[in-house]
Write a structure and sequence with these properties.
Two copies of one chain form a homodimer. Chain A is mainly α. In chain A, about 65% of the residues lie in helices and about 5% in strands. Chains A and B meet through helix 3, helix 4 and helix 7 of A and helix 3, strand 2, helix 4 and helix 7 of B. The structure holds a DNA duplex.
Chain lengths: ~250, ~250
DNA sequence: AAATGGCACTTGGTAGACAGTCTACCAAGT
DNA sequence: ACTTGGTAGACTGTCTACCAAGTGCCATTT
Protein backbone atom coordinates (compact mmCIF):
# COMPACT_ATOMS: atom_id res chain seq x y z
CA UNK A 1 0.00 0.00 0.00
CA UNK A 2 2.49 2.52 1.14
CA UNK A 3 5.82 2.75 -0.51
CA UNK A 4 8.26 0.95 1.65
CA UNK A 5 6.94 0.47 5.11
CA UNK A 6 5.89 -2.90 6.32
CA UNK A 7 2.25 -2.47 5.51
CA UNK A 8 0.16 -3.53 8.44
CA UNK A 9 -1.99 -5.59 6.13
CA UNK A 10 1.02 -7.23 4.52
CA UNK A 11 2.18 -8.69 7.78
CA UNK A 12 1.03 -12.25 8.22
CA UNK A 13 0.91 -12.57 11.95
CA UNK A 14 0.56 -15.90 13.59
CA UNK A 15 -2.08 -17.75 11.63
CA UNK A 16 -5.57 -17.28 12.90
CA UNK A 17 -5.37 -13.63 13.86
CA UNK A 18 -7.64 -11.62 11.63
CA UNK A 19 -7.41 -7.89 12.03
CA UNK A 20 -10.77 -6.24 11.72
CA UNK A 21 -10.93 -3.59 9.04
CA UNK A 22 -9.62 -0.35 10.36
CA UNK A 23 -11.37 2.78 9.13
CA UNK A 24 -9.35 3.94 6.15
CA UNK A 25 -8.11 7.51 6.40
CA UNK A 26 -9.81 9.80 3.93
CA UNK A 27 -6.54 10.79 2.31
CA UNK A 28 -6.08 7.17 1.35
CA UNK A 29 -9.46 6.96 -0.31
CA UNK A 30 -8.82 10.25 -2.06
CA UNK A 31 -5.48 8.97 -3.27
CA UNK A 32 -7.05 5.83 -4.66
CA UNK A 33 -9.85 7.74 -6.28
CA UNK A 34 -7.48 10.15 -7.97
CA UNK A 35 -5.10 7.51 -9.32
CA UNK A 36 -8.09 5.66 -10.66
CA UNK A 37 -9.35 8.79 -12.36
CA UNK A 38 -5.93 9.49 -13.80
CA UNK A 39 -5.49 5.98 -15.14
CA UNK A 40 -8.92 5.75 -16.70
CA UNK A 41 -8.53 9.15 -18.26
CA UNK A 42 -11.21 11.04 -16.36
CA UNK A 43 -8.45 13.44 -15.43
CA UNK A 44 -6.61 14.02 -18.67
CA UNK A 45 -2.89 14.49 -18.87
CA UNK A 46 -1.85 18.05 -18.27
CA UNK A 47 -5.08 18.99 -16.60
CA UNK A 48 -4.93 21.55 -13.86
CA UNK A 49 -6.11 20.10 -10.57
CA UNK A 50 -7.46 22.59 -8.05
CA UNK A 51 -7.69 21.51 -4.46
CA UNK A 52 -11.09 22.99 -3.66
CA UNK A 53 -12.47 21.66 -6.90
CA UNK A 54 -11.38 18.12 -6.13
CA UNK A 55 -12.53 18.55 -2.55
CA UNK A 56 -15.99 19.50 -3.68
CA UNK A 57 -16.00 16.77 -6.29
CA UNK A 58 -15.20 14.15 -3.66
CA UNK A 59 -17.17 15.67 -0.83
CA UNK A 60 -14.27 16.25 1.54
CA UNK A 61 -12.28 19.25 2.72
CA UNK A 62 -9.02 20.57 1.34
CA UNK A 63 -6.82 18.82 3.86
CA UNK A 64 -7.18 15.21 2.73
CA UNK A 65 -6.95 16.34 -0.87
CA UNK A 66 -3.70 18.17 -0.20
CA UNK A 67 -2.21 15.14 1.47
CA UNK A 68 -3.28 12.89 -1.36
CA UNK A 69 -1.89 15.28 -3.95
CA UNK A 70 1.46 15.35 -2.27
CA UNK A 71 1.68 11.62 -2.33
CA UNK A 72 0.66 11.62 -5.97
CA UNK A 73 3.42 14.12 -6.57
CA UNK A 74 5.97 12.00 -4.78
CA UNK A 75 5.04 9.03 -6.90
CA UNK A 76 5.07 10.97 -10.12
CA UNK A 77 1.39 10.98 -11.02
CA UNK A 78 1.07 14.72 -10.84
CA UNK A 79 3.49 17.61 -10.90
CA UNK A 80 3.10 20.13 -8.13
CA UNK A 81 3.90 23.70 -9.01
CA UNK A 82 4.13 25.88 -5.93
CA UNK A 83 1.61 28.66 -5.91
CA UNK A 84 -0.22 27.39 -8.92
CA UNK A 85 -1.38 23.88 -8.28
CA UNK A 86 -1.07 20.33 -9.50
CA UNK A 87 -1.09 19.18 -13.09
CA UNK A 88 -1.64 15.62 -14.11
CA UNK A 89 1.77 14.44 -15.19
CA UNK A 90 2.49 14.47 -18.90
CA UNK A 91 4.95 11.68 -19.64
CA UNK A 92 8.07 12.55 -21.56
CA UNK A 93 8.78 10.38 -24.58
CA UNK A 94 11.77 8.71 -22.97
CA UNK A 95 9.84 8.03 -19.80
CA UNK A 96 8.34 4.74 -20.85
CA UNK A 97 11.78 3.50 -21.77
CA UNK A 98 13.17 4.37 -18.39
CA UNK A 99 10.16 2.92 -16.67
CA UNK A 100 10.53 -0.35 -18.49
CA UNK A 101 14.26 -0.45 -17.89
CA UNK A 102 13.64 -0.10 -14.18
CA UNK A 103 10.96 -2.71 -14.39
CA UNK A 104 13.32 -5.09 -16.14
CA UNK A 105 15.80 -4.81 -13.31
CA UNK A 106 13.23 -5.12 -10.54
CA UNK A 107 11.11 -7.87 -11.96
CA UNK A 108 13.85 -10.02 -13.40
CA UNK A 109 15.41 -10.05 -9.96
CA UNK A 110 12.03 -10.88 -8.50
CA UNK A 111 11.62 -13.74 -10.94
CA UNK A 112 15.04 -15.03 -9.96
CA UNK A 113 14.17 -15.02 -6.28
CA UNK A 114 10.77 -16.52 -6.97
CA UNK A 115 12.44 -19.37 -8.83
CA UNK A 116 14.82 -19.82 -5.93
CA UNK A 117 11.91 -20.55 -3.67
CA UNK A 118 8.97 -21.73 -5.77
CA UNK A 119 6.13 -22.09 -3.32
CA UNK A 120 3.72 -24.80 -4.45
CA UNK A 121 0.48 -22.92 -3.97
CA UNK A 122 1.80 -19.75 -5.54
CA UNK A 123 2.99 -21.62 -8.61
CA UNK A 124 -0.44 -23.17 -8.99
CA UNK A 125 -1.97 -19.71 -8.80
CA UNK A 126 0.47 -18.50 -11.45
CA UNK A 127 -0.55 -21.26 -13.83
CA UNK A 128 -4.16 -20.43 -13.21
CA UNK A 129 -3.54 -16.77 -13.99
CA UNK A 130 -1.77 -17.68 -17.20
CA UNK A 131 -4.74 -19.66 -18.37
CA UNK A 132 -7.26 -17.00 -17.39
CA UNK A 133 -5.20 -14.23 -18.93
CA UNK A 134 -4.75 -15.98 -22.25
CA UNK A 135 -8.47 -16.64 -22.31
CA UNK A 136 -9.38 -13.03 -21.64
CA UNK A 137 -6.91 -11.88 -24.26
CA UNK A 138 -8.38 -14.19 -26.85
CA UNK A 139 -11.93 -13.18 -26.05
CA UNK A 140 -10.96 -9.55 -26.55
CA UNK A 141 -11.42 -8.43 -22.95
CA UNK A 142 -8.40 -6.16 -23.01
CA UNK A 143 -9.10 -4.47 -19.71
CA UNK A 144 -9.41 -7.81 -17.98
CA UNK A 145 -6.27 -9.11 -19.63
CA UNK A 146 -4.30 -6.07 -18.52
CA UNK A 147 -5.58 -6.49 -15.00
CA UNK A 148 -4.73 -10.17 -14.96
CA UNK A 149 -1.31 -9.31 -16.31
CA UNK A 150 -0.77 -6.93 -13.42
CA UNK A 151 -1.93 -9.60 -11.01
CA UNK A 152 0.50 -12.12 -12.39
CA UNK A 153 3.45 -9.79 -12.25
CA UNK A 154 2.42 -8.73 -8.77
CA UNK A 155 2.29 -12.28 -7.55
CA UNK A 156 5.73 -13.02 -8.93
CA UNK A 157 7.26 -10.06 -7.14
CA UNK A 158 5.54 -11.14 -3.96
CA UNK A 159 7.04 -14.57 -4.36
CA UNK A 160 10.44 -12.92 -4.18
CA UNK A 161 9.68 -12.39 -0.50
CA UNK A 162 11.29 -9.00 -0.77
CA UNK A 163 9.17 -6.16 0.52
CA UNK A 164 11.13 -3.50 -1.32
CA UNK A 165 10.99 -5.20 -4.67
CA UNK A 166 7.26 -5.59 -4.18
CA UNK A 167 6.80 -1.92 -3.42
CA UNK A 168 9.01 -0.54 -6.15
CA UNK A 169 7.79 -2.93 -8.80
CA UNK A 170 4.24 -2.18 -7.73
CA UNK A 171 4.74 1.52 -8.31
CA UNK A 172 6.42 0.96 -11.63
CA UNK A 173 3.77 -1.49 -12.74
CA UNK A 174 0.95 0.88 -12.03
CA UNK A 175 2.66 3.59 -14.02
CA UNK A 176 3.33 1.18 -16.86
CA UNK A 177 -0.28 0.15 -16.80
CA UNK A 178 -1.26 3.77 -17.23
CA UNK A 179 0.84 4.27 -20.36
CA UNK A 180 0.55 0.78 -21.64
CA UNK A 181 -3.16 -0.06 -21.87
CA UNK A 182 -3.50 1.15 -25.46
CA UNK A 183 -0.63 -1.14 -26.46
CA UNK A 184 -2.05 -4.27 -24.92
CA UNK A 185 -4.25 -5.33 -27.83
CA UNK A 186 -1.41 -5.80 -30.29
CA UNK A 187 1.08 -7.18 -27.83
CA UNK A 188 -1.23 -9.55 -26.03
CA UNK A 189 -0.97 -13.01 -27.49
CA UNK A 190 2.81 -13.28 -27.58
CA UNK A 191 2.97 -11.83 -24.09
CA UNK A 192 0.93 -14.67 -22.64
CA UNK A 193 3.06 -17.29 -24.33
CA UNK A 194 6.07 -15.75 -22.64
CA UNK A 195 4.28 -15.76 -19.32
CA UNK A 196 3.71 -19.46 -19.62
CA UNK A 197 7.40 -20.14 -20.27
CA UNK A 198 8.28 -17.87 -17.36
CA UNK A 199 6.03 -19.72 -14.96
CA UNK A 200 7.53 -23.00 -16.08
CA UNK A 201 11.03 -21.75 -15.35
CA UNK A 202 9.97 -20.56 -11.91
CA UNK A 203 8.22 -23.82 -11.18
CA UNK A 204 11.39 -25.70 -12.23
CA UNK A 205 13.46 -23.53 -9.95
CA UNK A 206 15.64 -22.39 -12.82
CA UNK A 207 16.78 -19.00 -11.54
CA UNK A 208 18.82 -17.85 -14.49
CA UNK A 209 16.22 -18.82 -17.01
CA UNK A 210 13.42 -17.15 -15.09
CA UNK A 211 15.39 -13.95 -14.75
CA UNK A 212 16.31 -13.93 -18.40
CA UNK A 213 12.81 -14.60 -19.67
CA UNK A 214 11.44 -11.82 -17.53
CA UNK A 215 14.07 -9.45 -18.87
CA UNK A 216 13.34 -10.33 -22.47
CA UNK A 217 9.65 -10.14 -21.75
CA UNK A 218 9.97 -6.54 -20.61
CA UNK A 219 12.22 -5.79 -23.54
CA UNK A 220 9.58 -7.07 -25.97
CA UNK A 221 7.02 -4.88 -24.28
CA UNK A 222 9.28 -1.92 -24.81
CA UNK A 223 9.73 -2.71 -28.49
CA UNK A 224 6.01 -3.17 -29.00
CA UNK A 225 5.37 0.18 -27.42
CA UNK A 226 7.79 1.91 -29.71
CA UNK A 227 6.49 0.28 -32.84
CA UNK A 228 2.98 1.30 -31.98
CA UNK A 229 4.11 4.78 -31.13
CA UNK A 230 5.99 5.20 -34.39
CA UNK A 231 3.07 3.94 -36.43
CA UNK A 232 0.26 5.71 -34.65
CA UNK A 233 1.58 9.15 -33.87
CA UNK A 234 3.78 10.55 -36.60
CA UNK A 235 2.23 13.99 -36.05
CA UNK A 236 2.76 15.66 -32.69
CA UNK A 237 -0.31 15.14 -30.56
CA UNK A 238 -0.60 18.11 -28.24
CA UNK A 239 -2.01 16.53 -25.14
CA UNK A 240 -1.99 19.62 -23.02
CA UNK A 241 -4.44 22.26 -24.07
CA UNK A 242 -6.81 22.55 -21.15
CA UNK A 243 -6.90 26.28 -20.78
CA UNK A 244 -8.39 26.76 -17.32
CA UNK A 245 -11.36 28.64 -18.80
CA UNK A 246 -10.75 31.81 -16.94
CA UNK A 247 -13.74 33.71 -15.79
CA UNK A 248 -14.26 37.12 -17.26
CA UNK A 249 -13.35 39.87 -14.90
CA UNK A 250 -16.15 42.33 -15.51
CA UNK A 251 -19.32 40.44 -16.20
CA UNK A 252 -20.55 37.72 -13.94
CA UNK B 1 14.22 14.56 -3.95
CA UNK B 2 10.74 13.27 -4.34
CA UNK B 3 10.13 9.69 -5.16
CA UNK B 4 9.57 9.48 -8.84
CA UNK B 5 8.69 12.81 -10.31
CA UNK B 6 11.13 14.70 -12.44
CA UNK B 7 12.57 16.79 -9.67
CA UNK B 8 12.47 20.43 -10.62
CA UNK B 9 16.01 20.90 -9.41
CA UNK B 10 17.24 17.97 -11.45
CA UNK B 11 16.28 19.61 -14.71
CA UNK B 12 19.20 21.26 -16.41
CA UNK B 13 17.52 23.91 -18.51
CA UNK B 14 19.26 25.57 -21.37
CA UNK B 15 22.64 26.65 -20.06
CA UNK B 16 22.76 30.14 -18.68
CA UNK B 17 19.34 30.21 -17.05
CA UNK B 18 19.78 30.34 -13.34
CA UNK B 19 16.62 29.79 -11.40
CA UNK B 20 16.59 31.87 -8.30
CA UNK B 21 16.28 29.68 -5.29
CA UNK B 22 12.65 29.27 -4.46
CA UNK B 23 11.76 29.29 -0.79
CA UNK B 24 11.64 25.61 0.10
CA UNK B 25 8.26 24.47 1.34
CA UNK B 26 8.30 23.96 5.07
CA UNK B 27 7.21 20.32 4.75
CA UNK B 28 10.40 19.69 2.82
CA UNK B 29 12.58 21.20 5.50
CA UNK B 30 10.70 19.29 8.16
CA UNK B 31 11.15 16.08 6.20
CA UNK B 32 14.88 16.65 5.93
CA UNK B 33 15.19 17.56 9.56
CA UNK B 34 13.34 14.45 10.68
CA UNK B 35 15.28 12.00 8.49
CA UNK B 36 18.46 13.57 9.77
CA UNK B 37 17.32 13.14 13.34
CA UNK B 38 16.31 9.56 12.69
CA UNK B 39 19.60 8.67 11.05
CA UNK B 40 21.76 10.25 13.70
CA UNK B 41 19.71 8.65 16.43
CA UNK B 42 18.22 11.73 18.02
CA UNK B 43 14.88 10.06 17.44
CA UNK B 44 15.41 6.51 18.64
CA UNK B 45 13.85 3.54 16.96
CA UNK B 46 10.37 2.81 18.18
CA UNK B 47 9.87 6.24 19.62
CA UNK B 48 6.41 7.71 19.44
CA UNK B 49 6.40 10.89 17.42
CA UNK B 50 3.73 13.35 18.42
CA UNK B 51 2.74 15.96 15.89
CA UNK B 52 2.35 18.92 18.20
CA UNK B 53 5.55 18.01 19.96
CA UNK B 54 7.54 17.97 16.73
CA UNK B 55 5.74 21.09 15.59
CA UNK B 56 6.77 22.91 18.71
CA UNK B 57 10.26 21.49 18.49
CA UNK B 58 10.68 22.81 14.95
CA UNK B 59 8.69 25.99 15.35
CA UNK B 60 6.00 25.24 12.81
CA UNK B 61 2.36 24.24 12.89
CA UNK B 62 0.92 20.75 12.70
CA UNK B 63 0.23 20.70 9.01
CA UNK B 64 3.78 20.69 7.63
CA UNK B 65 4.68 18.11 10.24
CA UNK B 66 1.81 15.88 9.20
CA UNK B 67 2.81 16.11 5.57
CA UNK B 68 6.39 15.28 6.36
CA UNK B 69 5.34 12.35 8.54
CA UNK B 70 3.20 10.93 5.80
CA UNK B 71 6.07 11.04 3.38
CA UNK B 72 8.33 9.45 5.94
CA UNK B 73 5.72 6.74 6.31
CA UNK B 74 5.57 6.18 2.56
CA UNK B 75 9.31 5.78 2.45
CA UNK B 76 9.45 3.49 5.44
CA UNK B 77 11.19 5.70 7.97
CA UNK B 78 8.26 5.72 10.34
CA UNK B 79 5.18 3.57 10.78
CA UNK B 80 1.90 5.40 10.93
CA UNK B 81 -0.79 3.82 13.05
CA UNK B 82 -4.20 5.35 12.45
CA UNK B 83 -5.56 7.07 15.48
CA UNK B 84 -2.37 6.69 17.41
CA UNK B 85 0.45 8.33 15.56
CA UNK B 86 3.87 7.73 14.10
CA UNK B 87 6.60 5.53 15.50
CA UNK B 88 10.14 5.58 14.25
CA UNK B 89 10.47 2.40 12.25
CA UNK B 90 12.11 -0.54 13.99
CA UNK B 91 13.87 -2.61 11.34
CA UNK B 92 13.17 -6.33 11.24
CA UNK B 93 16.21 -8.60 11.18
CA UNK B 94 15.63 -9.68 7.60
CA UNK B 95 15.16 -6.12 6.46
CA UNK B 96 18.79 -5.37 5.76
CA UNK B 97 18.96 -8.46 3.59
CA UNK B 98 15.98 -7.42 1.57
CA UNK B 99 17.26 -3.89 1.32
CA UNK B 100 20.60 -5.05 0.01
CA UNK B 101 18.99 -7.48 -2.39
CA UNK B 102 16.95 -4.65 -3.84
CA UNK B 103 20.05 -2.52 -3.97
CA UNK B 104 21.92 -5.22 -5.82
CA UNK B 105 19.27 -5.30 -8.52
CA UNK B 106 18.98 -1.54 -8.83
CA UNK B 107 22.61 -0.60 -8.70
CA UNK B 108 23.99 -3.41 -10.78
CA UNK B 109 21.58 -2.38 -13.50
CA UNK B 110 22.69 1.20 -13.01
CA UNK B 111 26.32 0.19 -13.31
CA UNK B 112 25.52 -1.66 -16.51
CA UNK B 113 23.84 1.38 -18.03
CA UNK B 114 26.62 3.64 -16.78
CA UNK B 115 29.16 1.44 -18.52
CA UNK B 116 27.08 1.54 -21.67
CA UNK B 117 27.49 5.28 -21.79
CA UNK B 118 30.60 6.24 -19.80
CA UNK B 119 30.62 10.00 -19.83
CA UNK B 120 34.17 11.33 -19.65
CA UNK B 121 33.69 13.92 -16.95
CA UNK B 122 31.63 11.63 -14.78
CA UNK B 123 34.25 8.91 -14.96
CA UNK B 124 36.89 11.40 -13.90
CA UNK B 125 34.73 12.36 -10.94
CA UNK B 126 34.33 8.70 -10.05
CA UNK B 127 38.06 8.16 -9.99
CA UNK B 128 38.45 11.23 -7.84
CA UNK B 129 35.85 9.93 -5.39
CA UNK B 130 37.61 6.58 -5.17
CA UNK B 131 40.84 8.25 -4.22
CA UNK B 132 39.22 10.54 -1.68
CA UNK B 133 37.18 7.74 -0.17
CA UNK B 134 40.12 5.40 0.25
CA UNK B 135 42.01 8.24 1.89
CA UNK B 136 39.25 9.03 4.33
CA UNK B 137 38.87 5.36 5.16
CA UNK B 138 42.57 4.98 5.86
CA UNK B 139 42.66 8.08 8.01
CA UNK B 140 39.80 6.71 10.07
CA UNK B 141 37.22 9.28 9.12
CA UNK B 142 34.38 6.78 8.96
CA UNK B 143 31.62 9.31 8.64
CA UNK B 144 33.34 10.96 5.73
CA UNK B 145 34.03 7.64 4.08
CA UNK B 146 30.41 6.61 4.37
CA UNK B 147 29.34 9.91 2.89
CA UNK B 148 31.79 9.61 0.02
CA UNK B 149 30.60 6.08 -0.54
CA UNK B 150 27.03 7.33 -0.88
CA UNK B 151 28.20 10.02 -3.26
CA UNK B 152 29.97 7.50 -5.45
CA UNK B 153 27.02 5.17 -5.63
CA UNK B 154 24.73 8.11 -6.28
CA UNK B 155 26.84 9.33 -9.15
CA UNK B 156 26.86 5.90 -10.75
CA UNK B 157 23.09 5.62 -10.65
CA UNK B 158 22.83 9.08 -12.14
CA UNK B 159 25.11 7.99 -14.95
CA UNK B 160 22.50 5.39 -15.82
CA UNK B 161 20.40 8.29 -17.06
CA UNK B 162 17.36 6.59 -15.59
CA UNK B 163 15.30 8.79 -13.32
CA UNK B 164 13.53 5.87 -11.68
CA UNK B 165 16.68 3.98 -10.87
CA UNK B 166 18.08 7.16 -9.38
CA UNK B 167 15.05 7.66 -7.19
CA UNK B 168 14.68 4.10 -6.00
CA UNK B 169 18.36 3.54 -5.45
CA UNK B 170 18.51 6.84 -3.64
CA UNK B 171 15.83 5.76 -1.22
CA UNK B 172 17.42 2.39 -0.67
CA UNK B 173 20.84 3.89 -0.18
CA UNK B 174 19.67 6.27 2.46
CA UNK B 175 18.03 3.45 4.34
CA UNK B 176 21.14 1.32 4.03
CA UNK B 177 23.20 4.19 5.33
CA UNK B 178 20.97 4.29 8.39
CA UNK B 179 21.53 0.65 9.27
CA UNK B 180 24.99 0.33 7.89
CA UNK B 181 27.12 3.04 9.44
CA UNK B 182 28.25 0.84 12.36
CA UNK B 183 29.49 -1.75 9.87
CA UNK B 184 31.57 0.59 7.79
CA UNK B 185 34.76 0.46 9.89
CA UNK B 186 35.38 -3.25 9.35
CA UNK B 187 34.22 -3.38 5.78
CA UNK B 188 35.94 -0.27 4.54
CA UNK B 189 39.26 -1.12 2.95
CA UNK B 190 38.12 -4.00 0.78
CA UNK B 191 35.11 -1.98 -0.26
CA UNK B 192 37.23 0.75 -1.76
CA UNK B 193 39.35 -1.73 -3.71
CA UNK B 194 36.16 -3.03 -5.25
CA UNK B 195 35.05 0.48 -6.09
CA UNK B 196 38.25 1.03 -8.00
CA UNK B 197 37.74 -2.10 -10.08
CA UNK B 198 34.14 -1.09 -10.68
CA UNK B 199 35.08 2.33 -11.94
CA UNK B 200 37.62 0.77 -14.26
CA UNK B 201 34.99 -1.52 -15.76
CA UNK B 202 32.64 1.41 -16.29
CA UNK B 203 35.35 3.49 -17.83
CA UNK B 204 36.18 0.59 -20.18
CA UNK B 205 32.54 0.31 -21.15
CA UNK B 206 32.41 -3.30 -20.03
CA UNK B 207 28.73 -3.65 -19.15
CA UNK B 208 28.69 -7.19 -17.92
CA UNK B 209 31.73 -6.77 -15.77
CA UNK B 210 30.48 -3.57 -14.22
CA UNK B 211 27.14 -5.11 -13.40
CA UNK B 212 28.73 -8.18 -11.90
CA UNK B 213 31.22 -6.31 -9.77
CA UNK B 214 28.46 -4.13 -8.39
CA UNK B 215 26.41 -7.19 -7.57
CA UNK B 216 29.27 -8.90 -5.79
CA UNK B 217 30.11 -5.67 -4.06
CA UNK B 218 26.65 -5.48 -2.54
CA UNK B 219 26.79 -9.15 -1.66
CA UNK B 220 30.04 -8.62 0.25
CA UNK B 221 28.44 -5.79 2.12
CA UNK B 222 25.61 -8.09 3.10
CA UNK B 223 28.01 -10.76 4.33
CA UNK B 224 29.99 -8.24 6.32
CA UNK B 225 26.85 -7.02 7.97
CA UNK B 226 25.87 -10.51 8.99
CA UNK B 227 29.26 -11.42 10.35
CA UNK B 228 29.32 -8.33 12.46
CA UNK B 229 25.80 -8.97 13.62
CA UNK B 230 26.57 -12.56 14.56
CA UNK B 231 29.73 -11.57 16.40
CA UNK B 232 28.40 -8.57 18.21
CA UNK B 233 24.98 -9.75 19.25
CA UNK B 234 24.93 -13.44 20.07
CA UNK B 235 22.40 -12.77 22.76
CA UNK B 236 19.08 -11.44 21.61
CA UNK B 237 19.24 -7.70 21.80
CA UNK B 238 15.67 -6.64 22.20
CA UNK B 239 15.68 -3.18 20.70
CA UNK B 240 12.11 -2.65 21.59
CA UNK B 241 11.53 -3.57 25.14
CA UNK B 242 9.76 -0.55 26.33
CA UNK B 243 7.50 -2.70 28.39
CA UNK B 244 5.35 -0.08 29.93
CA UNK B 245 6.85 -1.15 33.23
CA UNK B 246 3.59 -2.24 34.64
CA UNK B 247 3.19 -0.79 38.02
CA UNK B 248 2.56 -3.16 40.83
CA UNK B 249 -1.00 -3.12 41.84
CA UNK B 250 -0.74 -3.24 45.59
CA UNK B 251 2.38 -1.57 46.79
CA UNK B 252 3.50 1.76 45.44
C1' DA C 1 3.51 44.80 -31.16
C1' DA C 2 5.59 44.66 -26.81
C1' DA C 3 5.98 46.07 -22.11
C1' DT C 4 3.34 47.16 -17.92
C1' DG C 5 0.25 47.18 -14.33
C1' DG C 6 -3.36 45.14 -11.99
C1' DC C 7 -6.47 41.64 -10.65
C1' DA C 8 -8.33 37.15 -9.65
C1' DC C 9 -7.03 32.73 -8.30
C1' DT C 10 -4.41 29.22 -5.86
C1' DT C 11 -1.36 27.47 -2.81
C1' DG C 12 1.26 27.38 1.74
C1' DG C 13 0.82 27.90 6.27
C1' DT C 14 -1.61 29.05 10.84
C1' DA C 15 -5.07 28.58 14.38
C1' DG C 16 -8.78 26.56 16.68
C1' DA C 17 -12.38 23.24 17.26
C1' DC C 18 -14.42 18.70 17.62
C1' DA C 19 -15.38 13.72 17.16
C1' DG C 20 -13.43 9.23 17.21
C1' DT C 21 -10.11 6.25 18.76
C1' DC C 22 -6.24 4.42 21.25
C1' DT C 23 -3.80 3.58 25.62
C1' DA C 24 -3.42 3.09 30.23
C1' DC C 25 -5.29 2.69 34.55
C1' DC C 26 -8.43 1.52 38.20
C1' DA C 27 -12.11 -0.90 40.48
C1' DA C 28 -15.23 -4.31 41.01
C1' DG C 29 -16.73 -8.96 40.00
C1' DT C 30 -15.81 -14.04 39.38
C1' DA D 1 -5.38 -14.42 40.29
C1' DC D 2 -7.78 -13.27 36.23
C1' DT D 3 -11.37 -11.08 33.68
C1' DT D 4 -14.60 -7.46 32.89
C1' DG D 5 -16.28 -2.79 32.70
C1' DG D 6 -15.60 1.86 33.17
C1' DT D 7 -13.05 6.18 33.21
C1' DA D 8 -9.80 9.54 31.91
C1' DG D 9 -6.33 11.59 29.08
C1' DA D 10 -3.89 11.98 24.85
C1' DC D 11 -3.51 12.16 20.05
C1' DT D 12 -4.99 11.83 15.51
C1' DG D 13 -8.22 12.82 11.57
C1' DT D 14 -10.89 16.08 9.70
C1' DC D 15 -13.17 20.50 9.19
C1' DT D 16 -13.50 25.49 9.03
C1' DA D 17 -11.80 30.03 8.62
C1' DC D 18 -8.25 33.06 7.57
C1' DC D 19 -4.15 35.46 5.75
C1' DA D 20 0.16 36.24 3.08
C1' DA D 21 2.61 35.44 -0.90
C1' DG D 22 3.16 33.81 -5.51
C1' DT D 23 1.41 32.88 -10.34
C1' DG D 24 -0.70 33.54 -14.55
C1' DC D 25 -3.72 36.15 -17.43
C1' DC D 26 -5.87 40.20 -19.32
C1' DA D 27 -6.38 44.96 -20.64
C1' DT D 28 -4.38 48.87 -21.02
C1' DT D 29 -0.72 51.65 -22.22
C1' DT D 30 3.41 52.74 -24.64
Amino acid sequence: MTTISAGPDATSDSPGVRHVKRPTPLRESVYEALTEMIIDGTLERGRHLVEVELAGMLGVSRQPVREALQRLNNEGWVDLRPGFGAMVHVPAEDEVDQLLAARAALESESARLAARNPDKDAVAKLKELCKVGAGLQESGDIDGAVRTNAELHGLITEMSGNRFLVDFAGQVDRRVRWYYTPVAPVRGAASWREHTRLVKAISDGDEDKAAQIMREHTEHTRKAYHELQAGAAPEQTPVVEKKPTRRRRTTD
